[in-house]
Amino acid sequence: MNEYTQGMINLKYPAGIQKSNVTSNHRKKKVQYGHRGMTLEKDIDTTNKYYLNTNRAIIHKKPTPITVVNVDYPSRKKAKITEAYYKTPSTSDYNGIYRGRYIDFEVKETRNPTRFPFINIHEHQVEHMRECHKQGGIVFIIMRFHVHDEVFLYPIERFLVHWDNFKNKDGRKSIRYDDVKKESYQIPEKYNPRFDYLKTVDEIYFGER
Amino acid sequence: MNEYTQGMINLKYPAGIQKSNVTSNHRKKKVQYGHRGMTLEKDIDTTNKYYLNTNRAIIHKKPTPITVVNVDYPSRKKAKITEAYYKTPSTSDYNGIYRGRYIDFEVKETRNPTRFPFINIHEHQVEHMRECHKQGGIVFIIMRFHVHDEVFLYPIERFLVHWDNFKNKDGRKSIRYDDVKKESYQIPEKYNPRFDYLKTVDEIYFGER
């Protein structure tokens, strides 16, 4: 699946196929199979490896939850899963420890230029992050707007204001790009680590400038 | 697999089959397929749900890491995984936040009456726990000795003394039951939550008696 979403970004279009159609097909597939945001996730995974190797933090992506239905044992040593299904995650994808603190976040991207639609995020994930924030963790969403090529660190408590409005049926089904920009902190893109989001965490949560 | 290991405990033996043989077969299978410790894990999962529902802590078991090789799409909505394999985990199975602190642990059980063999634990998991401890997390192993029907909370820094001796080739390939008993804290078994290990954490890490 990584290859698939990677392919999306560097796609070569054969003659006669219109770019807009290809893109919209691919976007549909992404939504159906629940593999949004894999490109930014790869960058964050690389960044986390860098943090791990430099003893800066221990932050891992959780494995994708899968329900195993059937397993074959072609040899005594190797179990081969022959039927399984993806499950909806009940927590956010990333957590770990930084400067002695519990850290928890979700990585999301959108190709929408003007807003972040809530359909991109599971309710369970939001509620999990709300609880982690209540317990004193450092909790946020790393959010990329593809069209603007901008990545933001969005503290969960600010995100929750919009989310709760939405859940109370009165609010919008999305957050405006302008609001995200106002309420979050842009993470500059570098060579290595690609997105040094812990530097942003230092500034916001540890008051370092 | 949960059913399988559950079955182990309440096994009915058909006439003519000796209990000892059945048990030893089952034990071999357990080792091969890497699903050790599932019974205690179930109790800890239930305990964690109790903690979650009572807002005491947010602690989850990570999904089992699986490498997906092939996926079919029998309908547009449902992805069916048709070939996949279990991966060796690179972190411990449980982590989360408690009283504002990062908490990280592994759950292990052995049927050996006199020692805990290191073969029960992956090197990656131990090294992960060592690093989390260095970063200031609360890190331990919850260890059950089946024969004695005892469950212990074993702080990782004490476990590491034995592990490092073992890795330096001079030491034993296991920790003696007597040493575990001396160096760890027994978690009493109750009705609900089954193993209130956070009470033990309160005593050890927060100095409450």
UniProtKB/TrEMBL annotation, chains A, B:
Offer one Pfam family short name for this entry.
Answer: RecU
Residues annotated as binding Mg(2+) are 91, 93, 106, 125
The site feature described as Transition state stabilizer is recorded at: 108
Q: Where is the protein localized?
A: Cytoplasm
Any one cellular-component term (Gene Ontology): cytoplasm
Q: What class of enzyme is it?
A: hydrolase
- GO terms, biological process: chromosome segregation; DNA recombination; DNA repair
In the UniProt record, does the keyword DNA repair occur? Answer: yes
- CDD domains annotated for this entry? RecU-like
Q: Which UniProt keywords apply?
A: Cytoplasm, DNA damage, DNA recombination, DNA repair, Endonuclease, Hydrolase, Magnesium, Metal-binding, Nuclease
Q: Which cofactor does it need?
A: Mg(2+)
Q: Where does it primarily localize?
A: cytoplasm
Q: What is its EC number?
A: 3.1.21.10
- Cofactor binding annotation: Binds 1 Mg(2+) ion per subunit.
One MF annotation (Gene Ontology) recorded for this entry: nucleic acid binding
Its catalytic activity? Endonucleolytic cleavage at a junction such as a reciprocal single-stranded crossover between two homologous DNA duplexes (Holliday junction)
Its biological purpose is as follows: Endonuclease that resolves Holliday junction intermediates in genetic recombination. Cleaves mobile four-strand junctions by introducing symmetrical nicks in paired strands. Promotes annealing of linear ssDNA with homologous dsDNA. Required for DNA repair, homologous recombination and chromosome segregation.
Show the HAMAP family listed in the entry.
RecU
What protein family does this chain belong to?
A: Belongs to the RecU family.
Official protein name in the record: Holliday junction resolvase RecU
Name of the gene:
recU
